Amino acid sequence: MAKYLRKRLLEIIPVLLFITFIVFFLVFWVGDPVALMLPEDAKQEDIENLRSALKLDEPMLVQFGYFVSNVVQGDFGKSFRYGEDALPIVLERLPSTLTLAFTSMIIAVLIAIPAGIISAIRRNSATDVFVTGFSILGKAMPSFWLGIMLILIFGVIFKILPVSGNGTWAHLVLPSITLGTAVSAEMTRLVRSNMLAILQQDYIRTAISKGVKPLSLILKHGFKNALVPVITIMFLQISTLVSGALVTEVVFAYPGLGQLLVQAVSGRDMAIIQAAIFVVAIMVILLNLLADLLYKVFDPRIKYN
């Protein structure tokens, strides 16, 4: 286990370096941020002086070298928009996005696990058809469209839930449902397919012949053994929730990392973009590592080589 963990932690370094280079390369070719920092009537001399002070007049690889050396020290540069260090600004918004992602995942799990189990038990029934149809519909609906429909119904027509901002649990309901719907649809299909495969195993038939109660058979013997792939998809969907937050937070004016990143992209705020994507990348990598380590908890047969 310790050897496996050390190896996985060392693998994070080249992955982060590659992600950092790709983001830096894309940001480099977007345009000159100096044009946004100075007034339109700025003199060419002032433009060149600022570009030189920010080392934006250097070749791309040289700029990337400066950037990496600063990142190692935890310095992503100053935000052009806020005039402050980018990393603290990103970390300040991160808890709001994590709260939204966490509540969205809870909603997805509460929908997907019961629906997937019931659908597998009642295979080819009307319930199974309904659950399968929900999965397809939930996966196909664009998150921005669903968010707008929820705002229209619960915010405009019935006026029972807030449609923007942050601060109370009520502000999380509509964004969480919007984000959690697509994830629950994917998880429902996975739970259903795994349960169908598990329920046809020989040890399930043996348990039935021994008179094991149906509830114990489903939860203890069935779902527990189908849980490992579900854990995988849960942790992998964190990246989906974070990327989905880019749109959802804008739709609901939710002050999280997604809204900050969208504003940074539109304003070509390179420091914020790079810091935000770097933080999200680390979070996703560590969550995937945690998922790998949790496998052994649910399936002792797994060996770490």
Key words describing this protein structure:
305 residues, mainly alpha, MetI-like fold, 76% helix, 0% strand, cell membrane, MetI-like, MetI-like_sf, BPD_transp_1_N, transport
Description:
- Helix 1 runs antiparallel to helix 13 (270-298), helix 5 runs parallel beside helix 13 and helix 11 (227-251) packs antiparallel against helix 13 (270-298).
- This protein has helices at residues 2-30, 34-37, 44-53, 60-72, 86-121, 126-140, 143-157, 170-198, 202-209, 214-223, 227-251, 257-266, 270-298.
- The protein starts with a helix and ends in a 7-residue tail after the last helix.
- By secondary structure, it is an all-alpha fold.
- Pfam families: BPD_transp_1, BPD_transp_1_N.
List the SSEs and their pairings:
Elements: H1 2-30, H2 34-37, H3 44-53, H4 60-72, H5 86-121, H6 126-140, H7 143-157, H8 170-198, H9 202-209, H10 214-223, H11 227-251, H12 257-266, H13 270-298
Helix pairs in contact: 1-13, 5-6, 5-8, 5-11, 5-13, 6-8, 7-8, 7-11, 8-11, 9-10, 11-12, 11-13, 12-13
Subcellular location: Cell membrane
Domain ABC transmembrane type-1: 94-291
Membrane topology: Multi-pass membrane protein
